[in-house]
Specification:
- This protein is an all-alpha fold and 191 residues long.
- It has seven helices and no strands.
- Helix 3 runs antiparallel to helix 4, helix 3 runs parallel beside helix 5 and helix 4 packs antiparallel against helix 7.
- The longest helix is centred in the last third of the chain and has 38 residues.
- It is elongated and about 60 Å long.
- The protein starts with a helix and ends with a helix.
Length: 191
């Protein structure tokens, strides 16, 4: 039943395409293309390392993005799902349709940036705008990927689950690592 619903939605969206929506979804997809995510992640790592001179902030972005890629690739090797039975508006990568790497990458990159801004920005407006963008961009990317015939709805939901779970694990891991480091150095300075 889920497979039929997935295919039905993809076929329906394929029949509703317009030139304007094709253009909008192309630009939306670019927000989480491999090159975009790589460049933004490298810039974020470099800038946060330079500005705060600590390992936590750059490590959060690096681990969130690199870990998502590794997990995504491992899953696509295990799950060999074909892309939806509609014309694809983008060139299909050699990976499986499940999960959506674009969606997972958007959650990890923009979510990690939102965590940093939320922790460091003094302005409540800046914090909340960043948080809203960190939610809206992955949702827009997910919709665009389904619209463009690159993924089923369940693929982008799987990408959301992957990205959200990995981002949460990364944030918690960095926090635990920082707390452990502080505890070790506080204990070491008392000796």
């Amino acid at each position: 039943g889920i497979g039929r619903a997935d295919s039905g939605l993809s076929r329906w969206l394929g029949g509703e395409r317009t030139a304007d929506l094709n253009q909008v979804t192309r630009w939306t997809t670019l927000l989480s293309e491999t090159i975009t995510v790589t460049v933004l992640a490298v810039l974020a790592v470099a800038i946060t390392a330079w500005v705060w001179r600590r390992w936590r902030e750059p490590m959060l972005v690096a681990v969130a993005v690199a870990g998502e890629v590794a997990i995504f690739l491992a899953i696509t090797l295990l799950v060999d799902r074909r892309r939806p039975p509609v014309s694809h508006l983008d060139q299909a990568p050699p990976t499986s349709s499940f999960p959506s790497g674009h969606t997972a990458a958007a959650i990890c990159l923009y979510g990690a940036l939102a965590v940093l801004v939320f922790q460091r920005a003094r302005s409540a407006l800046v914090r909340w705008l960043t948080l809203i963008l960190a939610v809206l961009i992955p949702v827009a990317v997910a919709v665009a990927r389904v619209y463009r015939g690159m993924h089923y709805l369940t693929d982008v939901l799987g990408g959301m689950l992957l990205g959200g779970a990995w981002l949460l694990a990364t944030v918690q891991g960095i926090r635990l690592g920082a707390a452990h480091w502080q505890l070790r150095h506080r204990t070491g300075s008392r000796k």
